[in-house]
């Protein structure tokens, strides 16, 4: 793009497609309470000691290049490092890869008992250097990288039995991970889930790749109301794995009596495990705390250690049911769930859910618990100044009476940063704060004591100076009131915006249950280009069904998808027209996936506000979509349940 004058130029489509203005984040890979790993600009692996402010190169890029490594994972005792290569993506989170193990103490790659290629998941034990991996749907254990593998399971079968990794539907709609195995705190025990898809009908499609003929892809795919995978949870003693074999953790009777899901697993101690289950109608969840009985060599989940979480107005949890964060007494825990007013908040459970103590409260939501220490809880919420699209990091001191709450990030870089996540060192002595916006992202390192900033890890200075040459749209976040409903929106206004002129409007929609589009995050995307170069106003609207504003809004769409989400987009556009600067003859809507579904329904609604729309990969009928997602919000497509709203 030739810039004829010296002033800033518009952002072009090429700029966006070439990724010319991408920001960097810095996530420390913590390996102890005061050390983290990261890769230098030259791709050397550096071990940085925060305590003494000292960096050591533990592996040069030339060693990485020997095996074409693109990633790495170090054993917890820092004796070995597994180098990942031949990355081959499968689904959203899953991939296969090859791993070469390098001996950091003696130097050189481990040549004895090398690992097979196309490993589905690999994990070091939390203590020492035991190794577990999943290959061809079976779990293998190595007591040490040089030793031969011990086969933990042998019934794994492609598309039928999955051990230690999820099948497609669990990966996509329940766990959001590529793994389904967890080490106990000392690394003695290993818990894993087995998914049985052998009775699930399959979908098939042709994949047109490099070969002369297309390849047929087959996936077991449970649709709404159809047969679901069955699940079992097992624990194996890695010291005596062959002698004892895996032991199944029983499913609570109240859950086992009908179709159900496994939702998450949390180790509490080496002999105590917490497993979460969910009924197929996803408004009833059970958290079971189970203990290992040495004399009978079994796991026991007594009824008085089964905690029920139930929703009367919709589904349990947000998108997923939240995980518990256990305290050092190994029986009480903190967990986020809806309070009596329907807002998701942190509760302290000691003995029973009925007597839970509410820790946070208000007309906002606690979003994620990062860490529970002996004297504090670190969590994120959207409380600050009442903007649902913010994420600030808070610290509650639990030793003090009353509990003292402090916002670590709210006023740290107030204009630049209102959307954060955090990464804590092993015992929480240090943490990194990663800010995503609304200004240019920045990552910083903090000391827990006194919440003192130690250094900037990444400030995106080059991006900042490059953007001086670009005239970016102005972003505005605000709310509309429509018939007693609050709709939050983000509007991108062209650089030389003039309220007295008329502009075309594009609505970018997603609108799925428990989603959020109006966030205070920075991005240079396709819509940035449309506003900057083409002079189009782009707006994103969060209506009913979206997250983090209480269950009244979240559950408004329960059992009736495709109604209120569409109405709210149309209502918002009518309000935008009233603002006086929208050209009514040039209003469009577009979305992808759920957004494509809402786009299609908005165009077919007969409202007349949209002149055109683009629906990418829309849902065409809920009966054809995955069981876990669809039924969470719609129930079952049977006459006795909710068939009428599926049609």
TrEMBL record:
One of its GO terms (molecular function) is serine-type endopeptidase activity. It is found in: Cell projection, Invadopodium membrane; Cell projection, Lamellipodium membrane. InterPro entries: AB_hydrolase_fold (IPR029058), Pept_S9_AS (IPR002471), Peptidase_S9_cat (IPR001375), Peptidase_S9B_N (IPR002469), Serine_Prot_S9B/DPPIV (IPR050278). It comes from the Eukaryota. The keyword Membrane does not apply. Residues 75-441 form the Dipeptidylpeptidase IV N-terminal domain. GO terms for biological process: proteolysis. Coiled coil: none annotated. Residues 523-647 form the Peptidase S9 prolyl oligopeptidase catalytic domain. One of its GO terms (cellular component) is lamellipodium membrane. It is a single-pass type II membrane protein. Keywords: Glycoprotein, Hydrolase, Protease. PANTHER family: PROLYL ENDOPEPTIDASE FAP, PROTEASE FAMILY S9B,C DIPEPTIDYL-PEPTIDASE IV-RELATED. This is SEPR endopeptidase. The gene is Fap.
């Amino acid at each position: 793009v030739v810039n004829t004058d010296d002033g800033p130029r518009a952002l072009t489509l090429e700029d966006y497609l070439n990724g010319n203005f991408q920001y960097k984040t810095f996530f420390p890979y913590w390996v102890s309470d005061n050390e983290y790993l990261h890769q230098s600009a030259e791709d050397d692996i550096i071990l940085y000691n925060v305590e003494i402010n000292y960096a050591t190169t533990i592996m040069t890029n030339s060693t990485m290049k020997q095996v074409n490594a693109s990633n790495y994972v170090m054993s917890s005792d820092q004796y070995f490092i597994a180098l990942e290569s031949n990355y081959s993506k499968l689904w959203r989170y899953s991939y296969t890869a090859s791993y070469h193990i390098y001996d950091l103490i003696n130097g050189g790659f481990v040549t004895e008992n090398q690992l097979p290629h196309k490993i589905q998941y690999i994990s070091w034990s939390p203590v020492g250097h035991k190794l577990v991996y999943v290959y061809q749907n079976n779990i293998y254990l190595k007591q040490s990288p040089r030793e031969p593998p011990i086969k933990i399971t042998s019934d794994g079968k492609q598309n039928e039995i999955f051990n230690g990794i999820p099948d497609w539907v669990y990966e996509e709609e329940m766990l959001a991970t590529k793994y389904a195995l967890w080490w106990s705190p000392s690394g003695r025990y290993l818990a894993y889930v087995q998914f049985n898809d052998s009775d699930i009908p399959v979908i098939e499609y042709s994949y047109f790749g490099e070969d002369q003929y297309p390849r047929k892809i087959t996936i077991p795919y449970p649709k709404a109301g159809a047969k679901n995978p069955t699940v079992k949870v097992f624990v194996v003693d890695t010291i005596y794995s062959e002698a004892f074999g895996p032991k199944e953790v029983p499913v609570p009777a109240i859950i086992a009596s009908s179709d159900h899901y496994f939702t998450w697993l949390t180790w509490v101690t080496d002999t105590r495990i917490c497993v979460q289950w969910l009924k197929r109608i996803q408004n009833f969840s059970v958290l079971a705390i189970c203990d290992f009985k040495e004399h009978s060599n079994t796991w026991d989940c007594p009824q008085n250690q089964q905690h029920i979480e139930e929703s009367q107005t919709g589904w349990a949890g947000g998108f997923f049911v939240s995980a518990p964060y256990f305290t050092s007494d190994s029986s009480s825990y903190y967990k986020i769930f809806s309070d009596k007013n329907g807002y998701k908040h942190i509760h302290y459970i000691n003995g029973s859910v009925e007597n839970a103590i509410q820790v946070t409260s208000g007309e906002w939501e606690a979003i994620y618990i990062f860490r529970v220490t002996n004297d504090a809880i670190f969590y994120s919420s959207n409380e600050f100044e009442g903007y649902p699209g913010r994420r600030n990091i808070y610290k509650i001191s639990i030793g003090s009476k009353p509990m003292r709450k402090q916002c670590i990030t709210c006023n740290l870089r107030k204009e630049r940063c209102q959307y954060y996540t955090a990464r804590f060192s092993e015992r929480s002595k240090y943490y990194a704060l990663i800010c995503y916006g609304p200004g240019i992202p920045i990552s910083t390192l903090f000391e827990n004591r006194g919440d003192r900033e130690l250094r900037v890890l990444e400030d995106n200075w080059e991006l900042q100076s490059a953007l001086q040459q670009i005239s970016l749209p102005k972003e505005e976040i605000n709310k509309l009131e429509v018939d007693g409903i609050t709709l939050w929106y983000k509007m991108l206004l062209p650089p030389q915006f003039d309220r007295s002129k008329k502009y075309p409007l594009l609505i970018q929609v997603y609108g799925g249950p428990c989603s959020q589009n109006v966030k205070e995050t920075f991005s240079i995307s396709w819509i940035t280009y449309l506003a900057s170069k083409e002079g189009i106003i782009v707006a994103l609207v969060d209506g009913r069904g979206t997250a983090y504003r209480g269950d009244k809004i979240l559950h408004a769409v329960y059992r009736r998808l495709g109604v209120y989400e569409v109405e709210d987009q149309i209502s918002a556009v009518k309000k935008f027209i009233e603002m006086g600067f929208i050209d009514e003859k040039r209003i469009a809507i577009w979305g992808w996936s759920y957004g494509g579904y809402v786009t299609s329904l908005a165009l077919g609604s007969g409202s007349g506000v949209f002149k055109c729309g683009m629906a990418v990969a829309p849902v065409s009928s809920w009966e054809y979509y995955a069981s876990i997602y669809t039924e969470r919000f719609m129930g079952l497509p049977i006459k006795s349940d909710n068939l009428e709203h599926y049609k």
